[in-house]
Structures are given as structure tokens and as C-alpha cells.
Amino acid sequence: MRGRIATIAAAAVTLVGLITFFLFVSVPSSPASIFRRPAQPVPGVEPYKGSNGSVAATPPKPKDASGDPAARLIVKVKLDAEDASWTQKLEPSWQHNIITVEAMYSHAHPKAHRPDKGRVANAYLMWIIENYNNLPETLVFIPPRDTLEKHHFGFHNPLLNLKIPFIQESGFANLRCPTQKSQTTCNDKVLKPMQPPYELRTLEEKVPKSWHNLFGNDKEVPQQIATVLGNAFAVSKAQVRKRSVEEYLKYWTWLNNTIMDDDSSGLLMEYLWPTVFGKEAISCPEKAQCECDLYGRCDDI
């Protein structure tokens, strides 16, 4: 009897030892992690997956002048599965170029080195550089559709009504007007590089250095930068040509070499397009005047 008890006790000790061994080998060292549930995916947000390639090593180059450029052209950047066929319905008034970018992930690790730095800005700058010698008289840039946007802004009807003489006269205009009366903050979307609030510190603290890298050390950093965000704008050929192709290449090089994450560098470029195309750092037209100038909707003037 005593022998059986000893045998059972030895077997129990051995079993406990094996269980303990496999627990320590097969699970993370944190005790809490043994009972932790797997992280649930967040709707609409892709996890960081790492880069699938390196930053483009060869800068874009301008193509030789060829033929007669279109009078009006839409540069539409779209995601892989996005339907951009609406641009065809604007012909012959508008010609179009479609640029497809991969929807890798929407929020990258802060120090990730992305092959698509500021995806939309990168596509815009590459197009401008490559087509600098073949620019249309009026150029419209449209970003991919934001699938998380509560109220989708369709561009088909606005472009049919876009006042081309106004674009030629002003040189540059956001295609979205402010949704409230504000000529200083553009719906409260304002950067204060010299007084960064806590919640925007990551972006705003990097503005001064980025500003000098882009526009030169002799160009003073503004106290405030404000515009209607969205990456959708119209610009004239004459306004694009006010900067040399070397300047656009400088912007592209900065974008592809910055250690800023993709979201931050892309967002900063949204704020800076008016500056790139000759407008003041605060570029916030009054809502009613904006809709009248751009689309001829002047009932509220």
C-alpha cells in the first residue's frame, strides 16, 4: 500500500513539473498574459504590418514637352479597390490621370520607414515633377475617398460648376469651403508652431524645422497656419510654374527622407499646399464668398 502511495505521489510531482515547464516555455513571461484575451481589431483601422519595401531611391524626373496638354485635367489618386469611373463622366470638359496607391495601413508606427511617405502628397509631387513641361492650364488634384468620412463630398457636380476664370485669377483654391464663418481658423483647424498645445505637440513641434527644410532658413515660420483640410484643390499652370521643378523635387525629397510618420507628414502637407502655391499661411475664405467664387452659388452673398 505504502508503495502505491509513493508511486502516485511521484507521478503527481512529475505531472506538476511538466505542466509548469510547458507553461513557462509556451507563453509570455507576464503572468497576466496567460489569461489575456487576444486584442480585438478596431473597425476601419488597419494594424501596423511593417514596410514591404524601401523608399524609392530614384527621384522623379520631368518628361520632355510633347504635344498639346489638356486645357483641364483631373489628377485623381485612388486606393486599390476604389471606383474612380466618375471622372470619365466629366469628359470632354475634363481629362483625367488616375494614380493608384496601396491602402497598406492607416496608422503607422511613429518610426516606421514607409515606401509611401505621405501617400497622397507623394503622388501629387511626383506627378507635378514628371509633368512639369506638359502642364494643363487648369489642374485639379483629388485624393482617395475617405471611407471614414461621415458626409462624403462628391466632386462630380462641383467640378462641372467650377469657375475656371476664378482659378486662373487666384492661382490656387481649395475645392472644399469652410463649413462655418471663420476667416482665421478654417473650422478650428489651425496649427500654432510656436505655441503647440499638448494634444498636437507631435506635429506642431516639428513644423519649424520642416518649414525651413521646405522653404529655406530665410523664410520666417508663421505664428499660425490654417487652411481647409482635405487634399482637394485646383491650381493654374501659371501658379505651378512660379516654383521651379527643383523646388518641387526638394519637397519630394524631404517627404521621402523625413522620419515623421506617414500620417503626420501627409497632414503637414495638407496644411502647406496653399503656401506651396503662393497663398498666405492662413488661407481661410469666408464660407458664402468661397462657394460663390468657386461654384457660382451666390444666393447668400
From TrEMBL:
InterPro entries: DUF3431 (IPR021838). It comes from the Eukaryota. Residues 43-68 are annotated as: Disordered. Pfam families: DUF3431. The lineage of its organism: Eukaryota, Fungi, Dikarya, Ascomycota, Pezizomycotina. It comes from Phaeosphaeria nodorum (strain SN15 / ATCC MYA-4574 / FGSC 10173) (Glume blotch fungus). This is Uncharacterized protein.
